[in-house]
């Protein structure tokens, strides 16, 4: 191999570059990123950057000196537009083609939109520029409607509410974060938001955005009622950024489809939010939009490109910060899992829960319980038997207040 190209210059792309150098790759290394900024961290965008607790520079992942030491041909502000697998070429938006012997795809995901998303006052949040634009809008003291109560939507709502704004969240599911964590944790998250004065409209969809003179004026719900809004944040989930790979012969179902080695084709690997791979630990295919996974998977993909041939079998980890609460989760959280409290009590705002599925512990979740959840993680790693937990009380359905 003479040249390795990495497309996507963020958490996964940067980690892959560092891992390759760390592992002794001395050949040419090119890192291509569409954004103009050097690699930066996204989790603070919906937290410290929105509230203003951090200055924007603080999200930068490496100094310019660190990047120079990597001896990487860094192509910022350049979009990859096509991949020629057989010819080993990545085409760029400026017409240039870059040849490669090894390729790592780390292009992440792109936010979903609604029709009329181009009205002024309608925001999505994926990039640093999105976050700075949204913060500037929030500083004008608007009425805010957040569409979607997944992690991103609930974090944005918490940040906006912390800034003292009037915030309403609209969500078609009966409770927030239901898909990742289920009804019971979702109800606790709903209560957390209500306790902080955020309004929730759950179990109802958005019919359309309303606007006048090119500006958003509100959100019309499925039952015809309207929520007036000066700022609308669309937090509708994301789609893998694979459009540039269309027609490349790579399998693109939910992201770039890889095997257990994170390999999409000979010499071509994928990592981070864009990669779907078979996780042998759980015996299932998954694609994770988790910060820790971007790092771990990029290291694995880089190692496998250099010949490790090691299956990537992590226990997924995710955290979210909302108001004064940190939720941390290791493992998987199937909708039909049995959920039991194994430490503390939700009433006290500090507890840990375990998720059992098919007789095994498959996930643990901590609510302001970092030490306990770190200890319990071992049970997911070891695929411990669920029997021991069936003697502790099941997590009672929390009441909505
Ligand atoms: C606001 C926000 C808050 C988050 N909070 C948390 C959290 O609290 N906890 C947690 O675990 N995770 C969180 N995440 C998720 C975490 O940030 C992601 O999992 C992580 O950033 C994924 O890294 P990545 O490198 O795979 O993709 P990305 O960070 O999305 O980077 C992909 C890069 O590729 C570039 N790119 C795309 N297409 C092309 C192309 N064709 N050519 C060139 N470049 C291209 C993109 O511009 C982007 O810079 C959050 C994400 C966001 C957006």
TrEMBL record:
Q: Which residues form the FAD/NAD(P)-binding domain?
A: 3-298
Q: Where is the Reductase C-terminal domain?
A: 317-388
Q: Which Gene3D superfamilies match?
A: 3.30.390.30, FAD/NAD(P)-binding domain
A GO CC annotation recorded here is: cytoplasm
Q: Name the Gene Ontology molecular function terms of this record.
A: oxidoreductase activity, acting on NAD(P)H
Co-factor requirement: FAD
Keywords on record: FAD, Flavoprotein, Oxidoreductase
Q: Which InterPro entries match?
A: FAD-oxidoreductase/Apoptosis, FAD/NAD-bd_sf, FAD/NAD-binding_dom, FAD/NAD-linked_Rdtase_dimer_sf, Reductase_C
Q: Name one Pfam family in it.
A: Reductase_C
Please state what the protein is called.
Pyridine nucleotide-disulfide oxidoreductase
Q: Which organism is it from?
A: Streptomyces olivochromogenes
